[in-house]
Amino acid sequence: MDKDQSQKRPSLRLTNDFVFKAFFTYDSDKDGRMLEDLTTKLIRSQVKVEKRSATELYAPNDQGKDIRLDVSAQLIPRAYLNLEMQTSKMQIENRAVYYASMLLTQQENKGLHYSDLMPVIQVFFLDYLFPPKEHFSDKAIHAYQFQEIDDHDCLTNLMTIYIIEIAKIIQVKHSYDELNEIEQWLWFIKYYDDELSDPIVAELVRRQDIFKEAHEIMNAISNDPAIRDAAYARDKQLKDIAQIKYEGKEEGREEGIEIGKEIGKEIGKEIGKEIGKEQGHLDVARAMLRKHLQDDLIIECTKVTTEQLSKLKLELNSMMINESEAAYNADGDKSPTDKEGSH
Q1: How buried is residue 111: exposed, middle or buried, by Cβ count under 10 Å (0-12/13-18/19+)?
Q2: pLDDT tens sequence across 145-172
Q3: Who contacts 40 (Cβ-Cβ below 8 Å, separation ≥6)?
Q4: Residues above pLDDT 70, as percent of the chain
Q5: How far apart are alpha carbons 220 and 207 in whole angstroms?
Q6: Most C-beta atoms within 10 A of its C-beta, which of 17, 112, 218, 307?
């Protein structure tokens, strides 16, 4: 292995939610075209992006769940769009409905007629198989609306939820010519790397201008140190949380030998959740502070609060002061002979 290969940086992946977010918000002109093209092919209707933002915070009230959106946009014709990349199984059905409801209730049309509400398009990209269809269908794209149970007539089109299994298309699609337009995007999202090592991805970039631009954006992101650091920190955070949850479950199983298997499982889950949420976020934030990354970026990536970040800064400052004093005291304890010999 030559020196360049041994020092090659690992590729950023669009299945990393931080990279996914950056991809659609990094370059105002190109990213707008990416978002328009993907959405048009998904809903099979031409759209134009009017406004776009990343990581908006929607909090309906003090008791409601806060949610942070990966990528959101206002479209022409009138509609709100939210795209989410999801790599862990977190009650995705309920979560999708909750997110879409927030997009409906937080619109800037308070006091107006209900007919003025803008439709919401909620899209979840899943990097795992969706349980309801996992063993029964090769269908990867599922679109949901409110329908009458027996006759299946649509009650309203104000809320459309897409749940997309980006991993499933590989089970039945094996070549460039087998993919339809939206499946081409899903393949690109799943398999892109900066070397274009996947032959179908390479074919997409070679044949289609939209994927050439997508390749250019990913190159730019890959050469942005702040994005790379944040993306790797996010990967580490997810791996740490997964490990902590696993260890929590194992601990729960061991305890379950004494108090029952079912109780042990629940204890393991709770331990994993609580430790994973809190300690995992703090550890990643602490590591990012040591790399002198900006506060906004740290909060964005780790979801720590401003107060927690301030405490981490004080903790790190205190450690640095203690280390400096220890070094000074160690030097002061040297005998005159030691000091003379050091010159």
Answers
A1: exposed
A2: 998 999 989 999 899 999 999 888 777 7
A3: 46, 47
A4: 70
A5: 21
A6: 218
Tokens of 231: 């993306």
Which residues touch 308 (CB under 8 Å, ≥6 apart)? 282, 285
16-20, 265-269, 287-291: range with lowest mean pLDDT: 265-269
Write out pLDDT tens, residues 165-185: 988 877 777 899 999 999 999
Please indicate whether residue 239 or residue 168 has the higher confidence score (pLDDT). Answer: 168
Contact 194, 178 (CB under 8 A): no
Name residue, tokens 């990279």. Answer: 19
Q: Report the distance separating Cα 219 and Cα 216, nearest Å.
A: 5
What is the Cα 4 distance to its own chain's centre? 30
**Strands in the chain per DSSP E:** 48-54, 57-58, 67-68, 71-76, 79-86, 120-126, 141-147, 154-165
The string of DSSP codes covering 153-206 is -EEEEEEEEEEEETTGGGGT--SGGG--HHHHHHHHHHH--TT--SHHHHHHHH
Whose structure tokens read 């050439």?
212
CA distance 33 to 35: 5
Asked if 267 and 50 touch (Cβ cutoff 8 Å), the reply is no
Place of tokens 């040297």: 334
Which residue, among 19, 95, 17, 93, has the nearest Cα to 58 in the 3D structure? 95
Quick one: tokens of 266?
């629940």
258-287 residue pLDDT tens: 554 565 456 545 545 555 566 777 888 788
CA dist 59 → 113, 116, 126, 202 (Å): 23, 22, 24, 42
What count of Cα atoms within 13 Å lies in the side-chain half-sphere of residue 195? 7
230 vs 291: CA distance, rounded Å: 10
For residue 299, report the phi and psi dihedrals to the nearest 5 degrees: -65, -40
Query: Is the pTM higher than 0.90?
Result: no
